[in-house]
């Protein structure tokens, strides 16, 4: 499914102070908006995903799933800076008529939320019934709720935080160093920095998973070891790291990876506001904050802070060995938590 494109042709000023003459967003809609506009589900994707959640959240989005297009009008937008259709470093800068590349303007998670607000108005959406997002998607969800406290009825921030931690920044900075040390990175070409990004991805995977996850799935040598001496054998974990880097390089680019990681680092709902606490306390949606017990990148303490400051929020902790990636993989548990939470406030998930 090809995404639709929303063009905004007026000036748009970013948090950095840089003003763009316009921008565009790629977005996917599934299902139809009902007569009273009460069935909107807005899903926010994480770092390297696209605008079609039916592709990357297969256990939760689709016919007969929790977010069923026959019941809901589902909206998902590709983040500005990503390479799946929204304004990106590979697009032409209208001021130079050449690709942005290294000069791409930084969109913070707050800038992203403000861009989505313009798309919401274009789509004639007055209220969002459910907002849900994990990781960087959850960061955008929180920002939009603080910007527009009356907009969402239910929100489900998963494995996310109010301010990106020094630990998270360190992981992202190390990944950007890998890209920066790729000899091609300074070149103005589409595939600049790709080898560096492969290494960056291997670092990211260590933060996305957990000791137990690697122990269960990557222990020992690869299967092609018969007749090989010990120095010729390759560990499954090593092979996996290389494979994941190659896999990402076939579908993503280093420029998007670089700038999106910076956007994550800049995430801080308290910036320019009284405080993180005050910002979270302005949220009016009914909130269930979901945490993954083994998440080392966005540890449970960060979700505990969210649930403590968002008024009347509840906290649910999923016991999973998948680490941070649990928000993408623990389908059944997330579905049960969402259904149970909404049932506390209404008789059923709102139908068409």
UniProtKB/TrEMBL annotation:
Identify its protein family: Belongs to the AB hydrolase superfamily. MetX family.
Q: Its Gene Ontology biological processes?
A: homoserine metabolic process; methionine biosynthetic process
Which residue range or ranges hold the AB hydrolase-1 domain? 40-328
Q: Which Gene3D superfamilies match?
A: alpha/beta hydrolase
> According to its UniProt entry, what is the function of this protein?
Transfers an acetyl group from acetyl-CoA to L-homoserine, forming acetyl-L-homoserine.
Q: Which residues cross the membrane?
A: none
State which Enzyme Commission number(s) the record gives: 2.3.1.31
Q: Tell me the domain of life.
A: Bacteria
Q: In which pathway does it act?
A: Amino-acid biosynthesis; L-methionine biosynthesis via de novo pathway; O-acetyl-L-homoserine from L-homoserine: step 1/1
Q: Which residues are responsible for catalysis?
A: 135, 295, 324
Q: Which Pfam families match?
A: Abhydrolase_1 (PF00561)
GO MF = homoserine O-acetyltransferase activity
Q: Which residues form the signal peptide?
A: none
Q: How would you summarize the oligomeric state and partners of this protein?
A: Homodimer.
Gene Ontology cellular-component terms for this entry are: cytoplasm
Q: Where does it localize?
A: Cytoplasm
Matches recorded under InterPro entries:
AB_hydrolase_1 (IPR000073), AB_hydrolase_fold (IPR029058), HAT_MetX-like (IPR008220)
Q: Report the protein name in the record.
A: Homoserine O-acetyltransferase
Principal place where this protein is found?
A: cytoplasm
Organism, per UniProt? Panacibacter ginsenosidivorans
For the ligand (substrate), the binding residues are 201, 325
Q: Which reaction does it catalyse?
A: L-homoserine + acetyl-CoA = O-acetyl-L-homoserine + CoA
């Amino acid at each position: 499914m090809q995404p639709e494109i929303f063009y905004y042709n007026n000036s748009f000023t970013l948090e950095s102070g840089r003003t763009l003459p316009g921008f565009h967003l790629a977005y996917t809609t599934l299902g139809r908006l009902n007569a009273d506009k009460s069935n909107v589900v807005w899903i926010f994707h994480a770092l390297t995903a696209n605008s079609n959640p039916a592709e990357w959240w297969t256990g939760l989005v689709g016919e007969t799933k929790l977010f069923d297009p026959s019941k809901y009008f589902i909206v998902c937008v590709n983040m500005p800076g990503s390479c799946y259709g929204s304004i990106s470093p590979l697009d032409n800068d209208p001021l130079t008529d050449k690709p942005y590349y290294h000069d791409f303007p930084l969109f913070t998670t707050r800038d992203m939320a403000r861009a989505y607000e313009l798309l919401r108005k274009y789509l004639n959406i007055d209220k969002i019934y459910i907002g849900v997002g994990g990781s960087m998607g959850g960061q955008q969800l929180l920002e939009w709720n603080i910007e527009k406290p009356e907009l969402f009825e239910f929100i489900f921030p998963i494995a996310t935080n109010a301010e990106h931690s020094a630990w998270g920044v360190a992981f992202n900075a190390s990944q950007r160093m890998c890209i920066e040390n790729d000899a091609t990175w300074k070149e103005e070409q589409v595939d600049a920095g790709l080898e560096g990004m492969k290494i960056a991805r291997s670092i990211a995977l260590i933060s996305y998973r957990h000791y137990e996850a690697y122990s269960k799935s990557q222990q020992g040598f690869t299967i092609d070891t018969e007749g090989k001496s010990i120095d010729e054998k390759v560990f499954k974990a090593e092979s996996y790291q290389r494979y994941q880097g190659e896999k990402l390089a076939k579908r993503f680019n280093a420029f998007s990876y670089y700038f999106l990681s910076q956007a994550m680092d800049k995430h801080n709902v308290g910036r320019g506001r009284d405080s993180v606490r005050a910002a979270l306390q302005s949220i009016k949606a009914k909130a269930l904050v979901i945490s993954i017990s083994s998440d080392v990148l966005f540890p449970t303490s960060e979700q505990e802070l969210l649930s403590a400051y968002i008024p009347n929020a509840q906290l649910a902790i999923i016991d999973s060995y998948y680490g941070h990636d649990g928000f993408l993989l623990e389908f059944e548990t997330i579905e049960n938590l969402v259904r149970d939470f909404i049932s506390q406030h209404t008789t059923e998930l709102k139908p068409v």
